[in-house]
Amino acid sequence: MLDEYSGYRTALDQISVNWANDPFKVLIGTILSHRTKDEMTSKAAEHLFRRFKTPLDLAEASEEEVQKLIRPTGFYRIKAKRIKEVAKLILENFKGEVPQDIESLLSLPSVGHKTANCVLVYGFNIPAIPVDTHVHRISNRLNIVQTKTPEETEARLMEKANKKYWLSINDLLVRFGKTICKPINPRCVICNLRIYCAYYFLKVKQY
After folding, report:
1. pTM score of the predicted model
2. Out of 29, 121, 166, 188, which residue is the most buried by the measure of CB atoms under 10 Å away?
3. Is 12 part of any domain?
């Protein structure tokens, strides 16, 4: 389990490493990742950022060219439009710099709490807890929280988790969710955490 788990890198971690924690590239990469597999996000981000490196570059880019570069992601036409809008607003409202506060980030198109928190964590190294479907699912399966929505999970994790761990939570649980604790057919038999897992005892062990 450990070899497989430790060898997997998430798209946002890869973008952060490849582009020196550039907050703009993390922001755009997170928007690209919406409803898209990590492999496709990484591929599209690589193509896009080799051509357009700054908010100004992307704001002035042809929407058709952006669509072509990010085609591996789903909804690429909509995403091309949105990321150009984001680039323009960063230039107009934030002097070309990605803001570091959650309220300003949430004012941008296609940026919700998860995306804003990803920018804080992967772009600025500011403690936050981005909660996607993996973090929400695993936190509930392990009975760390008992929540209905990702927003509720974020709030509860912020209450329960020591702040010194916030930067690591998303990456750890996303990797764990993609390799071991999958949405369908989780690999409980090789999971070292199954002795703590409410899902395992309720759904698997009884059979």
Report:
1. 0.92
2. 29
3. yes
